[in-house]
Amino acid sequence: MNNKNIKKIKKIISAKWNNIEKTSMDLILLINNNEEIPFTFVPNSNDKSPISIELVQLFKENAFEIENVNEEEYNKKQLEQLSSEARMKRNQLLLETDYLVNGDYPISKSEKTAVKQYRQALRDITSQNEFPYNIEWPTKPDFIN
């Protein structure tokens, strides 16, 4: 048997039940060539394909816990994660301009006003109607590196 074409699973990136009956799950797998592949897995089937056998073994060995969440809980967790990621990006962008609003930094009055407006726009992203799913990030003033 030629083992070159056998895809070995390196990691299960995500796993989510794809129906309320919990008869199958949608997985994203990281395989040996660092490719991410989607896969629908039926844990209690008689499927004896190499990938299904390997998945069953991975679940047993690593005691993976699949979250039993309903769609509302899943959406809430996704909202929390996206919000957190957006706030981290916003905070980093604010940190990158802190030095410009320091009283000792040599900057013109018009540039300082532009920086303050940019920073306020960053703070206001959480008020956007589609936050955190679709964020219109403010544009840095041209003079900022």
Lay out the secondary structure:
Blueprint: E1 9-17, E2 25-31, E3 36-41, H1 50-62, H2 71-95, H3 98-101, H4 109-123
Antiparallel strand pairs: 1-2, 2-3
Can you describe this structure?
The chain is α+β, with helices and mostly antiparallel strands. Among the domains are: 9-62, no CATH class; 85-127. It has helices at 50-62, 71-95, 98-101, 109-123; strands at residues 9-17, 25-31, 36-41. The chain has a 3-stranded antiparallel sheet, covered by helices on one side. A hairpin with a 7-residue loop joins strand 1 (9-17) and strand 2 (25-31). The longest helix is centred in the middle third of the chain and has 25 residues, at 71-95. The termini are far apart. Mean pLDDT is 80; it is low at 1-5 and 63-68.
The biggest beta sheet is recorded as: 3 strands, antiparallel
Task: Kindly report the spatial arrangement of strands forming the biggest sheet.
Answer: 1-2-3
Element string (H = helix, E = strand): EEEHHHH
Output the radius of gyration: 24 Å
User: What is the total tally of β strands?
Assistant: 3
Mean pLDDT: 80
Helical residue percent? Answer: 25-40%
- Return the structural class: alpha+beta
User: What share of residues are in beta strands?
Assistant: 15-25%
Unreliably modeled segments: 1-5, 63-68
Please work out how many helical segments DSSP would assign.
4
Q: Per the principal axes of the C-alpha atoms, what is the gross shape?
A: elongated
